[in-house]
Amino acid sequence: MNLLTRTAAALALCVVAGSASGDVFLLDGFAYGNGSLEGQGDWQNATAVDIACNVALHDGSGGIPYHVVPGQGGIGTSAWLAVTLRQTVDNVIDGSFGGFGLYNGGAERLLIGKIFNESDVFGMVGPGGTPDLSTVSATTPEMHLVIVRINYGLFLDIADAWIDPVSPTNLGPADLTVSGSFDFDRIALRSGNGGACRFAFDTVAVGDALEGLLDEPPGNACPGDANGSGSVSFADVILVLEEWGPCECCLADMDNDGTVGFNDLLLVLAGWGACPE
To answer: How would you label 96-127 residue by residue, b for 16+ Cβ within 10 Å and e otherwise?
Structure first.
């Protein structure tokens, strides 16, 4: 945002200061069933992202998958993000970035994750800036919750990040802080080139306040549709029977308990017919 735009926005503060906050622009838990993220939930350029067990994994090929959100950057306002993710490849120091990024159109604004030639710890950096690095390893079996707050100022924006905060409602001092120009209108999922520095994402949330971003994401709108055909039918019953028993990331494990069983069969029977539009 240039100086003229920032100045005009500052003059308008008296108009917008009383506007309501707490809007959630994006809350996605990737409950689309196993398969590609392309064409799901308004994600774009996402052919290289696979969904398995409600987790999105970018393989590092193709372009950058992203989701458009309302433009953020008004003077005196804040933007918040809550993302759960982890790096799936150990000890990658190869110049690539993995994590999530904020963009204004095609212009990179802020990167949060494993930073280029740095070690496998969470960091944050803006274009041409010096990265701020945490001591938290990104390469662990469990997912990490990363909360980011951007405060938009007249001449400079401040981005703070918390990695696995003990209390998300009482964040305390930030683990990471950088300054720059961080206006954005899309969030992107990033993994390093050629499969290096791969990241898996469990939830992605964006809003103008933290409230609501940590809520349970919406589930599958048609939970009995095990095969993703758009309707619940005998084909789904057959799939449940074929995959019956303990099963990791199976299509028929619709309640995600690691087993295909009676609960999944009941979901099929309860959802019988065409899925809702």
So the answer is: bbbbbbbbbeeebbbbbbbbbeeebbbbbbbe
